[in-house]
Amino acid sequence: MSKSIINTPNAPAPIGPYNQAVQSGPFLFLSGQVCIDPATGELKNKDISEETHQVMHNIKAVLQAAGKDFSHVVKTTIFLTDMQQFSEVNAVYGKYFDGDFPARETVQVSALPKNVNVEISMIAC
After folding, report:
1. Which residues on adjacent β-strands are paired with residue 119?
2. Domain ranges of the chain
3. Could you tell me if 87 and 94 are in contact, meaning their C-beta atoms sit under 8 angstroms apart?
């Protein structure tokens, strides 16, 4: 099965040896996104709501670069450094879907790149 690499300047450039997304057959695998503003390279993290919105904007840009949108997402993984922020992250996250929610897990981790509070990855098809 062939694969194609998806990268867009409308989302942050990878900060390691990976791509923003990989298309393989009908599936699009999106790498985890954090709250880096692609225009400035700065973190947008004055609070968890702003941080989550930036993550979702970055994901939207990668989806669009692949010709997809949130309606194509079938699986999401949310990584949080503090599960006490779950309800705020969940409220922002939910606004990006039209009630057709994907499967999902949310896990607490001890740390994330650049000391952010939330990272989200997705699979779309």
Report:
1. 79
2. 3-124
3. no
Q: Which residues pair with 79 in a beta bridge?
A: 107, 119
Helix (H), strand (E), coil (C) string for 6-56: ECCCCCCCCCCCCCCEEEECCEEEEEEECCECCCCCCECCCCHHHHHHHHH
pLDDT single digits (tens) 23-35: 999 999 999 999 9
Supply the pLDDT for residue 1.
75
| CATH code of the domain occupying 3-124 | 3.30.1330.40
How do residues 66-101 score in pLDDT, each as one tens digit? 999 999 999 999 999 999 999 999 999 999 999 899
Collapse the DSSP code of 86 into the 3-class scheme (helix H, G, I; strand E, B; otherwise coil) and give the result: helix
Order of all β-strands in the sheet with 103-108: 3-6, 21-24, 27-33, 118-124, 73-80, 103-108
> Amino acid letter at 71?
S
User: Can you give the pTM of this predicted structure?
Assistant: 0.96
